[in-house]
Write a structure and sequence with these properties.
Blueprint (H helix, E strand, L loop, with lengths): L4 E3 L4 H10 L3 E3 L7 H13 L9 H22 L10 E10 L2 E3 L5 H11 L3 E11 L4 E12 L4 H10 L19 E5 L2 H5 L3 H10 L12
Parallel strand pairs: 1-2, 1-3
Antiparallel strand pairs: 3-4, 3-5, 5-6, 6-7
Helix pairs in contact: 4-5
């Protein structure tokens, strides 16, 4: 058993949710003193997210999460004695899906505009896969949610794209961000849509001997 979990994610939202749960965590991210080497590691992580032909959104998000977990375990091993092998490693990935089409992170403003235009007035699915494990035990779970967006006007889409909030976000938006005012309803897990389904993660962590809420941050 361990008193903390390693979080293999650069997402501020996932860090915030773990803190709200009262779960002590340490980041487990690519480390390198060489800028070129670090850039290569980050590109390799992005390559993991390439979609395979005929792959469904659920198959995709679960596969990517497993690959992220494997990459995190390799980083952990490279730390040697600095890594606490008793502490579980947590990885997660979130995917937005509209009518069977996976909407990843927009590459530019034009793609962001197209994505928001496609989501406008429709209901889409958000899948977040979580994997937690140690050398001897691993668990993976999937959170499914549905998000309905109200119709956006052309001027609203233009203003949103100009804000650049779409950068680095699956589907081009964040549930807790500027686009929240255009979301008419959700069904499922709000925290899962943010990137870390709190209920599922809490259950998983307890099986690794980590209790939640004991150090929860007050409102």
């Amino acid at each position: 058993m361990s008193a903390f979990v390693y979080l293999a994610s650069q997402s501020p939202r996932r860090q915030e949710l773990l803190a709200q749960m009262g779960v002590p965590f340490k980041p487990l991210l690519p480390e390198s003193k060489n800028a070129r080497s670090l850039h290569a590691q980050l590109l390799a992580l992005e390559a993991l997210e390439a979609l395979k032909p005929s792959e469904s959104a659920i198959q995709y998000v679960q596969r990517v999460t497993r690959l992220k977990y494997q990459a995190a375990r390799l980083r952990a091993q490279s730390l040697g004695s600095k890594f606490d092998a008793s502490a579980p490693v947590l990885c997660a990935d979130t995917t937005v899906c509209l009518s069977g089409r996976i909407l990843g992170k927009p590459m530019d403003a034009k793609e962001a505009q197209e994505m928001i235009g496609a989501l406008s007035g429709h209901t889409h699915r958000v899948y977040t896969s979580v994997m937690i494990g140690t050398e001897h035990q691993q668990q993976q779970r999937l959170s499914r949610s549905w998000v309905t967006m109200a119709p956006w006007s052309a001027s609203q889409i233009k203003a949103y794209v100009a804000s650049k909030e779409w950068q680095g976000k699956a589907g081009g938006y964040a549930i807790q961000g500027k686009a929240s005012g255009m979301i008419s309803s959700i069904k499922g897990s709000y925290s899962g849509i943010m990137g870390l389904p709190v209920f599922e993660v809490s259950q998983m962590l307890r099986s690794f001997g980590i209790e939640v809420l004991q150090n929860a941050r007050p409102d």
